[in-house]
Amino acid sequence: FYLTPPQVNSILKANEYSFKVPEFDGKNISSILGFDSNQLPANAPIEDRRSAATCLQTRGMLLGVFDGHAGCACAQAVSERLFYYIAVSLLPHETLLEIENAVESGRALLPILQWHKHPNDYFSKEASKLYFNSLRTYWQELIDLNSGETTDVREALINAFKRLDNDISLEAQVGDPNSFLNYLVLRVAFSGATACVAHVDGVDLHIANTGDSRAMLGVQEEDGSWSAVNLSYDHNAQNKHEVERVKMEHPKSEERSVVKQDRLLGLLMPFRAFGDVKFKWSIELQKRVIESGPDQLNDNEYTKFIPPNYHTPPYLTAEPEVIHHKLRPQDKFLVLATDGLWETMHRQDVARIVGEYLTGVHHQQPIAVGGYKVTLGQMHGLLTERRARISSVFEDQNAATHLIRHAVGNNEFGTVDHERLSKMLSLPEELARMYRDDITIIVVQFNSHVIGAYQNEE
Amino acid sequence: AAGMFLRALSEIQWRAAHPKWRRMTSSQRATSTTAEPPPVSLPAQAQVVICGGGIMGTSVAYHLSKMGWKDIVLLEQGRLAAGTTRFCAGIVSTARPVSIELKMAHYSNKLYQQLEQETGVQTGYMKTGSISLAQTQDRLISLKRIASSLNVMGIPCEIISPKQVLQLHPLINIHDLVGAMYVPEDALVSSANVSLALATAASRNGVQIHERTSVSHVTVQKGRVTGVETDRGRIQCEYFVNCAGQWAYELGHSGEEPVHIPLHACEHFYLLTHPLKEPLSSSLPTVVDPDGRIYIRNWQGGILSGGFEKNPKPLFTEGRNQLEIQNLQEDWDHFGPLLSALLRRMPGLEALQIMQLVNCPESFTPDMRCIMGESPTARGYFVLAGMNSAGISYGGGAGKYLAEWMINGYPSENVWPLDLKRFGTLQSSRTFLRHRVMEVMPLMCDLKVPRWDFQTGRQLRTSPLYDRLDAQGARWMEKHGFERVKYFVPPGKDLLDLDHSKTFYKPDWFDIVGAEVKCCKEAVCVIDMSSFTKFEISSTGDQALESLQYLFSNDLDVPVGHVVHTGMLNEKGGYENDCSIARLSKRSFFMISPTDQQVHCWAWLKNRLPDDSNLIMEDVTWKYTALNLIGPRAVDVLSELSYAPMTAEHFPSLFCKEMSVGYANGIRVMSITHTGEPGFVLYIPIEYALHVYNEVMNMGQKYGIRNAGYYALRSLRIEKFFAFWGQDLDAFTTPMECGREFQVKLEKGTEFLGQEALLEQKQNGVYKRFTMFILEDHDTDMDLWPWWGEPIFRNGRYVGKTTSSAYSYTLERHVCLGFVHHFDEKTGEELVVTTDFINQGEYEIDIAGQRFQAKAKLYPFSSLFTQRRRKDEVELSGYQRE
């Protein structure tokens, strides 16, 4: 049986979300016009997460995709918490003091982040107090450490990633008197998540990446064509530097076992991740926590299983690799996506499809007769062909949805094949994961005028 | 390549014709821009300064100088004829649905034909003729209507079969055609060269032309133009003419006192090709295929083809200025549908090689008609712009009318449909213009059917009852930005959607309006007439009465509480406005005029009322909601609501009294209805509007009250032979010509404007006469409906045109109103029209080429006046324009 096109659309669009940065009197001061995001589950429930927020106490906007494994608990926690850690890391000393004083005296807190969430993106109510306390401890330490120096975004990102992972680990070790929370923090720590986060402030774009999600910049060349620039490196076995790094961090004796079958210890695909304490804690610690933990944990074969050749933990880190890029007017958009997308599509195709979508086909490749000899008939044929090609563009109001449509439905000619799309989307739950992974995409569109103006100022 | 093309298209062959005016040939320009001679300095003063060296500016200069005004300076910010004029496709086409536009195009054609001989400048004039194709029967009807009006103007024109099309133009695919219209005298020109020829002639007549001079703003003092500031200094002047094309809006807004010129540019695309293998003959007719949205003309052995797409691209909304319009980007994907239409029409062109796709912005106006005339706020500030892509067709005629207007105070034809004063500030919003022109441009090719309403820029001005009426099924039309009800669709009844409701035949609302009319005749209806323009004029002494007695033809020195119908006439006795004036007190008057008089009437009175701080005129249109209660039971409803007797003895016709209705006090009640039916109009301070409406509807229930709309009103007024200003009456119609002598008091003791002309007419007779026609052999269900503008034939000879028409549900016949002239059979000279001449004739009305017998009447059917009271009280006026 086949899904009808409207059925296909309702599946594809179920999780789409768009945000336009509001214009103030026509003077849009943000270098971001807005973003589109969407996700398509393959796992049930989906293990990917996404986040987007505007920093209210500093400038800039944060966007991220998180790919969970061994459950969604870790990805969920990171998607809720990481941006607070980053925002706090970026705050100047005075603001931190102000916030701390407000908490101390029970006054209303300055809002730190404005979230841009799809209704399906939820925050855990039960854990909010716990999470808040950990965060507060973090900023109290920052206040004590006051270096007096202005905050470097790169450092802030790295600190935030490491600190959050540390807190996840600590919370699981300490546990919680509330049994629900106790189980939650353990699930968070024993599952894992990669993270790819963008911080955009004016022309300064920072990408902090941990794991195998990817950030890619869409660049429009002078001739109107599109090209892709990678703004992150995958942390997996395909990345020679990563393999080297992992091997370097462990004794020579483990050289053969630490990366096996393209996986960390023969088990884990990403070489960096949040959570996954099974690859971070000592065997003793793991055993102690599991034994004292709730029964559900004890019954879980996965958590109890100790990786083979586990000699010199930690094997895994959440420390991100940060890339800084100065935005130029030709940088039109940024794609953040989990590996579900990159497995099916080449980045060059992603750049082209999103670019053509965002600009509408005319701008991207205007036909110019110039000095060529073109007849009316030839031109007519060419235009008819182009119209057919862009007709699929108009089905989507969301660049991320459009990209997913291509990722799932593309045939060998690079055009969306409805039959294929329908088949892929109607796979039963247990089969879906065999044919495709969860896909989460954020497409950020930049405001070239603002970027151009920034450039001129400099 | 762009430069090459520019030269090729305009073929400018320039000779320095006048020492005051130096310019370089275009080839020099292409190679060097530095070797320019120093510009001649600007004069310190001039009588007239014209801004804009395109076809409009040069045409105005040409005509002004030809009519004897010499002290004229024309300023062009770039080069002459370098803007839209340069890119214009150069088609002179007389097939225009609006009669004044048709006249302008006809004159332009005759002017261009002899221009080369007159000036020595090659204009590229070539009489090729034009063929307008019809793919549908409806399109053919609209062409036949145009053909009828061309024929009676003496312009050759015929409706031809598809086979004849093929004989005229061998490339046309005729398989999907049902017919066509052939206008053999339509022509092609090089528009830039026409403009240069006009400039040359003007220059020889003494007009100074300065290029590379831009006007920054116009200075106005005490409501008069005093001068122009340019980038090269100031020129003092009495008259300023804004011919700045698509920049006219901005130029109008640049001064301290803005002049609102509502127009907006859209991109316009046309294609140029290389010559065919066997080059096309330069005399091959131009083809217009409105159903395909394209036009095709021969161009240097190849073709030039453009069109008006469904999804236009408006531009310059933010008001960017630029000197000469450089070639904007070609957009082939956008042109795609037009290219398909072209190849469908001429499949043989497949192998023809493309030369270029030209993108040239054109300016469009909110109602698809051009803008000319004097600013209502700055005297001496004239405008000619907004040509809706027909600049070359209108250029000659429009320039002539404007020149006449400036020199004589008014043009030789009624140009109200084009008058700047039909617009106010409300049409000047950039957003409104942007949205409206996106609707107007595709409309260039859409079928023009009766009763078309614009869909964009709506719900701007509304009555406080808007939502209430809307919820009761109101269908709306718009007048001067104001939403007015056409009719009410009863619950459970569906009408056709917009596209399918377009028809030249019986419309789908026929029975709905019939029921509303019936209710007006037998019970009582409410019509919201809040859109009417309302002024209050008052003074401390007798200044108000004295001034108004001079400006209005009827006697206004009536007892307080009386309402007078009167014309506001010009020197020639023509109607500048037709209104009702109530005397509120000894020293104050309340004046009600048609909706679209808001700007014109205000300016007319402002310019003529004495400059006296004790004489105050106020526009109170927005302060009152007007409810018209029409029907025999109106009197019952109102007396129950006011506890006051409303019968004829207590409240005679043409009476005005402030009273309470329901809880609301101070409601101005007038015993007029604008339809001839008995009833009242209630002028309600807006905050009481909802209350009074609710009271009226509740109380009216037992009398069978219902809502009605303007279509019912129109049917009622036309069957009663009421003329409406703007539709039937204009500045060229006097009360004597429309049977309204009784509204003129020639001997009222004081002199009034137009008196002399009327006295002369009274003595010598009139040259046209407003007449009512009842169609005899017309089948309402099967035949085409009359609209307006249909030729009237008397004994087989053309005598005039209809001005409005409606189906009379009482007579069960169509009624047309129109003017009958008496042309001498031999000389064509206009003779006096007598009552006998009207009565002794066999009449026919030509609807799209089909003639219907009609009975002419000079007076309305008395049997329709069942509620008639005293003979002299019969209200013979009405004046809204549909």
Automatic annotation (TrEMBL), chain A:
<dbReference type="Pfam" id="PF00481">
    <property type="entry name" value="PP2C"/>
</dbReference>
<comment type="subunit">
    <text>Heterodimer of a catalytic (PDP1) and a regulatory (PDPR) subunit.</text>
</comment>
<dbReference type="InterPro" id="IPR015655">
    <property type="entry name" value="PP2C"/>
</dbReference>
<keyword id="KW-0809">Transit peptide</keyword>
<keyword id="KW-0460">Magnesium</keyword>
<dbReference type="InterPro" id="IPR000222">
    <property type="entry name" value="PP2C_BS"/>
</dbReference>
<keyword id="KW-0496">Mitochondrion</keyword>
<keyword id="KW-0378">Hydrolase</keyword>
<protein>
    <recommendedName>
        <fullName>[Pyruvate dehydrogenase [acetyl-transferring]]-phosphatase 1, mitochondrial</fullName>
        <ecNumber>3.1.3.43</ecNumber>
    </recommendedName>
</protein>
<comment type="function">
    <text>Mitochondrial enzyme that catalyzes the dephosphorylation and concomitant reactivation of the alpha subunit of the E1 component of the pyruvate dehydrogenase complex (PDC), thereby stimulating the conversion of pyruvate into acetyl-CoA.</text>
</comment>
<keyword id="KW-0904">Protein phosphatase</keyword>
<keyword id="KW-0007">Acetylation</keyword>
<dbReference type="GO" id="GO:0005739">
    <property type="term" value="C:mitochondrion"/>
</dbReference>
<keyword id="KW-0479">Metal-binding</keyword>
<dbReference type="InterPro" id="IPR036457">
    <property type="entry name" value="PPM-type-like_dom_sf"/>
</dbReference>
<dbReference type="GO" id="GO:0004741">
    <property type="term" value="F:[pyruvate dehydrogenase (acetyl-transferring)]-phosphatase activity"/>
</dbReference>
<dbReference type="GO" id="GO:0046872">
    <property type="term" value="F:metal ion binding"/>
</dbReference>
<feature type="domain" description="PPM-type phosphatase">
    <location>
        <begin position="32"/>
        <end position="446"/>
    </location>
</feature>
<keyword id="KW-0106">Calcium</keyword>
<dbReference type="InterPro" id="IPR001932">
    <property type="entry name" value="PPM-type_phosphatase-like_dom"/>
</dbReference>
<comment type="similarity">
    <text>Belongs to the PP2C family.</text>
</comment>
TrEMBL record, chain B:
<dbReference type="Pfam" id="PF16350">
    <property type="entry name" value="FAO_M"/>
</dbReference>
<dbReference type="Pfam" id="PF01571">
    <property type="entry name" value="GCV_T"/>
</dbReference>
<dbReference type="InterPro" id="IPR027266">
    <property type="entry name" value="TrmE/GcvT-like"/>
</dbReference>
<protein>
    <recommendedName>
        <fullName>Pyruvate dehydrogenase phosphatase regulatory subunit, mitochondrial</fullName>
    </recommendedName>
</protein>
<feature type="domain" description="Rhodanese">
    <location>
        <begin position="48"/>
        <end position="91"/>
    </location>
</feature>
<dbReference type="Pfam" id="PF01266">
    <property type="entry name" value="DAO"/>
</dbReference>
<dbReference type="InterPro" id="IPR029043">
    <property type="entry name" value="GcvT/YgfZ_C"/>
</dbReference>
<dbReference type="Pfam" id="PF08669">
    <property type="entry name" value="GCV_T_C"/>
</dbReference>
<keyword id="KW-0809">Transit peptide</keyword>
<dbReference type="InterPro" id="IPR036188">
    <property type="entry name" value="FAD/NAD-bd_sf"/>
</dbReference>
<dbReference type="InterPro" id="IPR032503">
    <property type="entry name" value="FAO_M"/>
</dbReference>
<keyword id="KW-0496">Mitochondrion</keyword>
<dbReference type="InterPro" id="IPR013977">
    <property type="entry name" value="GcvT_C"/>
</dbReference>
<dbReference type="GO" id="GO:0005759">
    <property type="term" value="C:mitochondrial matrix"/>
</dbReference>
<dbReference type="InterPro" id="IPR028896">
    <property type="entry name" value="GcvT/YgfZ/DmdA"/>
</dbReference>
<comment type="function">
    <text>Decreases the sensitivity of PDP1 to magnesium ions, and this inhibition is reversed by the polyamine spermine.</text>
</comment>
<dbReference type="InterPro" id="IPR001763">
    <property type="entry name" value="Rhodanese-like_dom"/>
</dbReference>
<comment type="similarity">
    <text>Belongs to the GcvT family.</text>
</comment>
<dbReference type="InterPro" id="IPR006222">
    <property type="entry name" value="GCVT_N"/>
</dbReference>
<comment type="subunit">
    <text>Heterodimer of a catalytic (PDP1) and a regulatory (PDPR) subunit.</text>
</comment>
<dbReference type="InterPro" id="IPR006076">
    <property type="entry name" value="FAD-dep_OxRdtase"/>
</dbReference>
